Amino acid sequence: MLTSTGSSGLYKAPVSKSLLLVPSALSVLLVLLFQNYLSFFQYNIQAVKEDFQIWRILLGRTICLDLKDTFCSGLLVYNFRIFERRYGSRKFSSFLLSTWILSAPFEFILVEAIHHTFGITVNQLPSGFLAPIFGLFVPFYGSIPGVQVTVVLGHFPISNKTLVYIVGLQLLTSSPSMCIIAVSGLVAGLCYNSNVWEINKVFYIPDWLAKISSCTLEPLFSSTQPTTESQEGMGATLDIQRQQRMELFDQQIMLSQFTPRGPQAQVGMFHWSRLFTPFRHGLFPSANNPTPAQEVRHTAASEQQVAQLMDMGFSRADALAALRASNNDINRASNSLLQH
């Protein structure tokens, strides 16, 4: 029901898979079987400030103690797996680590601000790995294009992102103090996305740790490529996936028009291409309508750029075409592929 983003499942998203399985399993075990240990994972702000139980910042911000929060956060993690495919597991993990660390002081600042402004004392916050999940809404809002799917009651458009925001709203309203976690996560996500105070160079996964994790943990959480999907990759949005079959058929028709034919074969030929507008005419101009951009001689795209776009779920042919159209600008190429 959520946004379809690239290949189905958790292919090329081991970090997202680990966030789905490990915290969810521990949450269920704690709530159902080990209730005597629940107090150790409560995010008790008062205990941290008065009794200096700093360890609660670590344990209290890792595992959800409310199964509704576990379910909603799991849905969001599954949907946000597209960012791991786009950035790579290392950069995606660095984003999660940075927002998890940065959101902690913001939470204490907001608690004190609410106490001094409104006289409301907040002693406990919702437990779980929640702030980084709210932080992922920052790149989700800014970089994932919204495509209208339907219209409700003739006035309210429903896009491919609407249900994701609804799940986020459900998570936000699960507790009165969840807004503190949400605001802290969003601020931390904005700081990382804007690279405030050179945060990207301060909080990151070091190269040696990434190599160790790829050798030890990645095999445990890696997923095989879905056998039902094309080996050349699928688009990163629902509309791309819907149009790929039509695009393939349209390409076959276009190729048939370029095939040399005799006069008898051309007479009375029905131009099917008039019925099927090529999928990416706006992005990749056809050979019959050259543009000034086509006349410019482009340098060959690097394999690293092609591999990065293929990791996002696009085919090699689409990646090469997008890089040629954007003059090997990886950001413009990825945005064009996502928007068409």
From TrEMBL:
Q: What is this protein called?
A: UBA domain-containing protein
The record's InterPro entries line, in alphabetical order, gives: Rhomboid-like_sf, UBA, UBA-like_sf
Pfam families, sorted: UBA
Report membrane topology.
Multi-pass membrane protein
Species: Pleurodeles waltl (Iberian ribbed newt)
Which Gene3D superfamilies would you find in this protein's record? DNA helicase RuvA subunit, C-terminal domain
Q: Which PROSITE patterns match?
A: UBA
Q: Which SUPFAM superfamilies match?
A: Rhomboid-like (SSF144091), UBA-like (SSF46934)
> GO CC annotation: what is one?
membrane
Residue ranges constituting the UBA domain according to the UniProt record: 300-340
Subcellular location(s) of the protein: Membrane
* Ranges that cross the membrane: 20-40, 95-118, 130-156, 163-190
**Which keywords does the record carry?**
Membrane, Transmembrane, Transmembrane helix
Q: Would you say which domain of life the source belongs to?
A: Eukaryota
Q: Please name the GO terms that the record assigns under molecular function.
A: serine-type endopeptidase activity
